[in-house]
Structures are given as C-alpha cells and as structure tokens.
Write a structure and sequence with these properties.
alpha/beta; 8-stranded parallel β-barrel; about 40% helix; binds 2-phosphoglycolic acid
Length: about 240
Amino acid sequence: MEKLIIVANWKCNPTTLLKAKLLFNSIKRGVRSFKKIEIVICPPFVYLMAGDKRQATRIKFGGQDCFWEEEGAFTGEISPLQLKNLGCRYVIIGHSERRKYFSETNKEIGQKIKAALLAKLKPILCIGETRQERRKGKVERVLRDQLKKDLTDLSAHQLKNLIIAYEPIWAIGKGRACSFEDAKWARYLIKKSLKKKISILYGGSVNSKNAKNFIKEAGFQGLLVGGASLKPKEFIKIVKIVAES
Ligand code: PGA
C-alpha cells in the first residue's frame, strides 16, 4: 500500500530564517517516529536553501509553485529543475491562492505540471470549487473541467506520478472544513473523472480534530495542511493521529 502523505504548505510564512529553522526542527523532532507517513514540507523558496535536503532525514521537501521553463530570462521565476537540484521531490501547482491572486490559468497550470514531471518532481495539483459554485450545484462540472484542462496530453505513465489535492476554496483558511460526506463525494468524482489510481489528498482547514476522518471516513490518501502546519504541536498531533488511525 502507498504511504499516506501529509503536506505542510507554509505559504508566505514565517518572516525570518531563524523562525523557519525553529519550526522545521520542532516538526522534525516531533514526527521522527511516524515512519508510515510521508511528510512533505513546502516552505517559501528562500528557506529551501537552508540545509541540505538530501540528508538522510525523513522529511521531504517541495516547492509551493514552479515555472514551466527549465532556465532562462524569466525574472522572478523558479524552475522545476532548480527545485529538483535543490533536493525537492514535490511541488504544489495550481493552488487556489495562485489562481486567485496571480491569475494563473488552467493552461499555465498544465504547462507547469508537464515541466514538473519532466524534472522528475511529483506535482500536487490543487483543484476545488468556490462556495458559489457549490451552491449552484456545479461541483462535478468544476472539478471535471479543472482536471481536463490542467492535465491535457499527459500519458498514463506521467499520471502515475501525479497527486491531486481536493481543496474546496470556501474551506481554506476558514477554520471550518468540508464535511466528510461532501469531501468523500468530491473524491469519488475526481476518481471517476481520472479513471486512474492516483493519490488524492484533502486540504482546507485540516486540524487535529478532523484529520483522522478525512482518511478513515472519506478515504483520502493524505492531507494538505496550511495554517495548522505553522503550529508545530498541532501539526505533529495531526501526523500522530493519522499514523495511528
Ligand atoms: P488551511 O490551508 O489548512 O489553512 O485551510 C490549506 C491550503 O491552502 O493548502
């Protein structure tokens, strides 16, 4: 059986390298014994440099985004090859905050997915509906549409290295997660649309109280954790609960 994956998305936090190191060290110490879980930390790019990611540590690293070219005159961008060469194994692509604040299109997200796969990174593609889309009963259409547009021209072999994160936008950073029933339904829709065995994670206000049920009740293969990943005690508790469930 594939390992369950717990991804920490630090977003644009914390504000100093010292704080990032303290956070990382507390998490590293706290999760040492939970060998059955693949733990992936996605810090801001600037902190990826602080320490050799190839060290024999159980924690894996990922970027929060990447560009679609390997190198060149693209001011401000980070390429998937640069992430790979820095020791990253994963990269989050198409997070709703990137779609919203940086106007990322499905076409661009598709290009990023391809480039990440080419660099031998595992892309974690984020998809999910807005509250309005949910109210209008459009969840199935939105998810299907995002998957179709973000994953065009990918071979079955390439799809094997892909991870999907179902992140209902209305549940992100709100302290109120999706119900297990609705999340389970979304997971079923994603599976049906992909027709492949792909790991699907849940993200959106995950905490130590709801983490277990997204795995046990809703059947996800892991979690994408934002806010709670910045609180070492809470994050370690999530890992522990999932590991022991
Ligand atoms: P949250 O963020 O856990 O703070 O809701 C999740 C995410 O945006 O990936």
